[in-house]
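User: I'm putting together a small comparison set for a docking exercise, and I want a reference complex before I start. The sequence is below, and the ligand is nicotinamide-adenine-dinucleotide. Could you produce the 3D structure with the ligand included, as structure tokens?
Assistant: Of course. I'll restate your input first, then give the structure tokens for the complex.
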Amino acid sequence: MRRITVFGSTGSIGVNTLDLLMPGAVDVVALTGGRNIALLAEQARRFNAAIAVTAYEDCLPDLRAALAGTGIAAAAGADAIAEAADRPADWTMSAIVGAAGLVPGLRALRHGGTLALANKESLVTAGPLLMATAAKYGATILPVDSEHSAVFQALVGEDKAAVERVIITASGGPFRQFTLAQMQAITPAQAMAHPNWSMGQRISIDSASMFNKALELIETREFFDFAPDQIEVITHPQSIIHALIGFCDGGIMAHMGPADMRHAIGYALHWPRRGAVPVERLDLARLATLNFEAPDPVRFPALRLARNVMETRGLSGAAFNAAKEIALDHFIAGKLPFLAMAAVIEDTLARLSRENSLQIAATTLDDVLNMDHLARKTATEAVASRQQGS
Ligand code: NAD
Ligand code: MG
């Protein structure tokens, strides 16, 4: 039986992953979650997992109580999540949100199996380290982001040297047609309401600001190793085409599918074969039109900031992601306006680049985590100085 671990099983990707698995047909090693203990315990019971881990120590008594008498082990904290990754698994889903997903993913790669990577932040913060770790242990990383799964699928059987450009699509989010003036007053509740995809709170807001697409540009660069100027973003409000590959003969391969993450998760689950996945089948006649437009760099500065990171590489991805997480925390808490998130991130990167520390290659975990820590501190200061200034 295939041994499976799901990091972030209680989240949007985690729930969709378990939806594709049949209890009894897989050997579930570990499931991890956060504060939703009722769901984590229900999942662990349903799949008779060996261990369930919550990220939070104060949730452990509840988790223990909910699993009493099942024989399922319970644990809590970041170290316990990393230790869960040390339990051998053949297929691991990395679906924790944020930089917290990096260490579990790295540790899971040591088993030499498959890491289905939804946690794009791992590639953004530590792409070279993640790819080198996979190579060292003979592990396979399969992208689970819809655009990156689409690129991966469109490249099967192709010669990478024949690729001229890679285009990932963006829905444009809920504010695609907002004016700059309207964007001054965006609330977290508005930013969470994505027009096409049902996702976790943080990635939904990142989609609205296009910081999700910024992370995805960097993710494309790190995973597929194309040059930054080969990678483009196009806004495509219907979210039917997820990515396109342009070849040297002028042909373009586009990947289409429903806006349902179970397609990309299912592809990673069945790879290298294809297996049946219960997503809606597209009715092209009903869709009728597919629109495309260039993203507006003025209202959505995230893509420009990502371009700088793609050029600089080094530890700038770790700094960019950490600053983004801090800015997002403050926006969600109602302490930072929507448009100020980009300003805080830009300010953080400018402050850090003066110290020349962004150039160091992201090849050791210590360097990445130190930069993550420093950038969080710097971004918090950048938020504070804006608040004092306003
Ligand atoms: P989510 O917020 O719905 O779920 C996140 C999961 O991580 C939950 O299980 C939560 O308990 C856990 N978690 C949160 N903080 C944690 C921490 N500090 N330590 C340990 N666990 C923690 O998020 P999601 O939408 O499922 O996204 C998960 C990842 O997948 C993100 O990296 C996101 O960018 C990526 N992704 C999501 C989608 C989507 O459709 N939801 C699409 C593409 C990529
Ligand atoms: Mg995506």
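Residues 145-147, 216 surround magnesium ion (ligand 2) (CB under 6 Å). The mean pLDDT is 97.
User: Thanks, that's exactly what I needed.
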